[in-house]
Amino acid sequence: MNNSDPKAQIELLQKRIRELESNIDSDSSEEKIKQLRQEMGLLQAERDKLDSIWKKTQLARHEKRPYTLDYIHRIFSDFQEIHGDRRFADDPAIICGMAHFEGRQVMVIGHQKGRDLKERQYRNFGCANPEGYRKALRVMKMAEKYQRPLITLVDTPGAYPSIGAEERGQAEAIALNIREMAALTIPILVVVIGEGGSGGALGIAVGDRILMLENSFYSVISPEGCSAILWKDQEHMREAAQALKITAEDLLSFGLIDEVVPEPENGAHADHDAAAEILKNHLRRHLEDLLAIDVETRLNERYRKFRSMGVIESRAPVAAGR
């Protein structure tokens, strides 16, 4: 069957089975029905998997899902926000500040979306401009100066792709953050709490430990964008999400993250307090582990973590004339 949609293929198989059942004239027909039913079972399992992955994608974007400020108010104390990049402006899409985590001074950085239309526009839907990443870098440097652990919360569709953002050096700002985070001597904990979109996420996501909430995703491109490029439409988002391997379980199996943080039974959006308490326990454990490691070892492990990501295949050149 040429149709790649499992649902359409299942419908075709069901139609074919009904036709055979209405006219069983030999053992071969019964054998064919059995074969088609087995094939339909495999397709149903494939469809269920697509639906499960897409459900996680939708939960990562749920309008009631806890955002960075929701976690800050529940996990940290004495939070003092820091504004501005000292170059151009403040970017409300990224929250930065000083706080206490169980009595220890830390620095916190995270993307912030909005609940209603007015706030979403103010926060630019969590899509940061270059000044947002430069503000974040400013806070990272403060964390380094005062030797405070850094915790970042990732939740963005991606960096803002406007002409103004490009004119002000969007790519350079993200690249500089990636380079500088790799060399910071302080412990760095990264948590993907919702959407982890491309370079917009990476600009604050280089760390010693990378965690993902159970119903979050992390990807170089959104399923919608992938569908538009590969299929020239928006009808293959589920297939794109599966092919991209964007779920926490997928990324853990590839060694790209360090742990999947479970969520309350119905998802983080259903119980912000419970979600924050679970995340707090994981942050405590990982921070204690990192503080027990000497700086040189921690930096070497961070370097190896990111150098080992991805697989490169090389092939011998084909001889001339062959």
List the helices and strands and how they pair.
Layout: H1 6-21, H2 27-60, H3 68-75, E1 77-81, E2 94-101, E3 104-111, H4 117-123, H5 130-145, E4 150-156, H6 163-167, H7 170-183, E5 188-197, H8 198-202, E6 209-213, E7 217-219, H9 223-230, H10 237-244, H11 248-253, E8 259-261, H12 272-291, H13 295-307
Written account of the structure:
- This protein has 322 residues and is an alpha/beta fold.
- It has 2 domains: 6-60; 68-307, 2-enoyl-CoA Hydratase, Chain A, domain 1 (Alpha-Beta Complex).
- 50% of the residues lie in helices and 15% in strands.
- The chain has helices at residues 6-21, 27-60, 68-75, 117-123, 130-145, 163-167, 170-183, 198-202, 223-230, 237-244, 248-253, 272-291, 295-307; strands at 77-81, 94-101, 104-111, 150-156, 188-197, 209-213, 217-219, 259-261.
- Strands 1, 2, 3, 4, 5, 6, 7 and 8 form an 8-stranded mixed beta sheet that branches.
- Helix 9 (223-230) crosses helix 10.
Short description:
50% of the residues lie in helices and 15% in strands. By secondary structure, the protein is of the alpha/beta class. The longest helix is centred in the N-terminal third of the chain and has 34 residues, at 27-60.
Characteristics of this structure?
elongated; alpha/beta; 2 domains; 2-enoyl-CoA Hydratase, Chain A, domain 1; 8-stranded mixed β-sheet; single chain; 322 residues; 15% strand
Separation, N- and C-terminal Cα atoms: 35 Å
Number of domains: 2
- How many strands appear in the DSSP assignment? 8
CATH topology of the largest domain: 2-enoyl-CoA Hydratase, Chain A, domain 1
